[in-house]
Amino acid sequence: MNTTNQVIVITGGAGGIGQACARTFKDQPIIITDYSQDSVDKTVATLAKEGFRVSGIGCDITNKEDIKKLTSFVSEAGTLKALVHTAGVSGSAKDLQKVYTIDLVATELLIDAFYELATEGSVAILMSSMMAHTVPANKVYDDALANPQAADSFDTVSQQVNNNADTMYNFVKRGVQLLMHKNAEKWGEKGARIVTVSPGVIETPMALKASEEHPERMKMLKEATPLKRNGQPEEVADVVHFLVSDAARFINSTDILVDGGVLQNIKKMM
Ligand SMILES: NC(=O)c1ccc[n+]([C@@H]2O[C@H](COP(=O)([O-])OP(=O)(O)OC[C@H]3O[C@@H](n4cnc5c(N)ncnc54)[C@H](O)[C@@H]3O)[C@@H](O)[C@H]2O)c1
Q1: Domains: count for the chain
Q2: What is the Å distance from ligand 1's center to 205 Cα?
Q3: Which of 47, 76, 177, 182 is 20 to 30 A from 149 (CA-CA)?
Q4: 206 with 16: CB under 8 angstroms?
């Protein structure tokens, strides 16, 4: 194992927020991972040209064997400074099981696999969503969300979402926050932190797709944002960069909302 390099691993590294996060780490070794090797290779080539210390490996985060290859790749490259987990799909996936598996089950697989690499000063930053904050606490489905690999979890959560993949997305993003809290003690024993970040509407390929599907809703969200605009991926990336830095060394087991203030207004409309 190479112990001198403090590596930043970015899942969804070919995506909008993932790539923006990568660009904030100018002087640190970065490992990009994403679903397709081709998109990883293209992203690595682009970032290398811009002067970043970057390498990459394809990984379907729902596949345990792929995750094993990813963690081996990371431990050969150095010690884990940060896992920045941005890979995910929105409700546009239209498939409850797909949203549940990619956004929630795979998040738990990554937390567990990267726990093995975490040491003092490591941090895991997981993308949740402001929409997670619209799902109230509830004993029954919270237990299911916090244990997404349990046999009856998917069925328990599905019963709440009225066969709507957008609603499933809101629930599983709440689940990401519950997983973060659940793992804080364990990570803390190593001197490692774990936090979530909840973006509002951020102009990436994911949000563009949502805009095409629900133009009225997206327009309403922009108007309900006190800043009267959507966010840019760089505005989430800057927060992620701060959370990785030493300046954030006592920020732990919490969610950071990066939404331009819209959530407070969404709650008033509910
Ligand atoms: N853009 C927004 O408005 C917004 C708002 C709230 C939360 N988020 C969250 O932020 C994160 C990043 O979103 P984005 O807007 O950058 O989306 P994006 O679609 O640009 O990027 C997501 C990336 O995840 C990858 N991915 C999907 N399934 C995968 C799998 N099984 N294995 C490996 N990689 C996979 C995709 O290939 C893609 O590159 C997501 O978790 C999303 O839910 C985004």
Answers
A1: 1
A2: 9
A3: 76
A4: yes
First CA to last CA across the chain, in angstroms? 51
Residue 91 included in any domain? yes
Atom of ligand 1 nearest to the CA of 201: 3
Rounded to an integer, the average pLDDT of 165-183 is 98
* Domain carrying residue 37: 6-269
Query: pLDDT at position 52, please?
Result: 98
pLDDT number for residue 205: 87
**Is the per-residue pLDDT at 3 higher than 70?**
no
Q: Which of the four pLDDT bands, split at 50, 70 and 90, describes residue 102? A: very high
Within a domain: residue 122? yes
pLDDT at 1 over 80: no
Whether 218 shows a pLDDT value over 90: the answer reads yes
Q: Provide DSSP, 178-245.
A: HHHHHHHHHHHHTT-EEEEEEE-SB-SHHHHHHHHH-HHHHHHHHHHSTTSS-B-HHHHHHHHHHHHS
Report the sign of the C-alpha dihedral through residues 54, 56, 61, 67, in that order.
negative
Residue 252 falls within a domain, yes or no? yes
**What is the domain-level CATH number for residue 174?**
3.40.50.720
Q: What are the tokens at 233? A: 């991926």
* Pocket flag, ligand 1, residue 237 (CB < 6 Å): no
pLDDT band at 206 (very low <50, low <70, confident <90, very high): confident
Sequence-ordered list of residues with C-beta below 8 angstroms from that of 81, at least 6 positions apart, any chain: 6, 7, 8, 28, 121, 122, 123, 244
Ligand 1 pocket test: which of 108, 130, 204, 208 has the largest number of ligand atoms within 8 Å of its C-beta?
Answer: 204
Return the pLDDT at 2: 53
| 3-class DSSP state of 23 | coil
